[in-house]
Design a protein that fits this description.
0% strand; 3 helices; single chain; elongated; mainly alpha
């Protein structure tokens, strides 16, 4: 196997890429319509009330960035435990149990990231509509 290949490597590179692509589309729209009211999305755990779409997006993108970092850390731990399992025959049951917990955490993290990426796409779609409406209002006003 070559570096970057193998189980999970594609997933790690795809999620940040999807996030970056959406982020690159959303940020210019926020410059134009970011002061408008927040968008209806499922609440993110630990979030507060938002004054506008810009604040809401910063919270959403921050949550995704945190999950991406956490995913990287979980993957590193899984690799460390796999290496420990390969190197030693002691405590295999304990190592396997810990790896199972890490895999469960990884799956939960992945599910949350996927949901937040769906929310991010919904946010982008709604922001695009607001931008178009805002342009139409400005055009009619001239």
């Amino acid at each position: 196997m070559h570096p970057g290949e193998g189980s999970g490597s594609t997933q790690q590179s795809v999620e940040p890429s999807v996030f970056t692509q959406l982020d690159d589309k959303i940020r210019p729209l926020l410059e134009k319509v970011g002061d408008l009211r927040p968008i209806e999305l499922p609440p993110i755990e630990g979030s507060q009330q938002f004054n506008n779409a810009r604040e809401q997006y910063e919270d959403l993108s921050g949550a995704i960035k945190d999950l991406l970092k956490e995913s990287f850390q979980i993957n590193e731990l899984i690799i460390n435990y796999l290496n420990a399992r390969i190197k030693t025959r002691n405590n295999l049951g304990e190592i396997t149990q810990t790896m199972n917990k890490l895999n469960t955490s990884h799956q939960h993290n992945k599910d949350r990231k996927n949901q937040l990426l769906v929310d991010m796409q919904t946010f982008y779609d709604h922001l695009t509509q607001l931008h178009i409406l805002n342009q139409n209002i400005q055009t009619e006003g001239n």
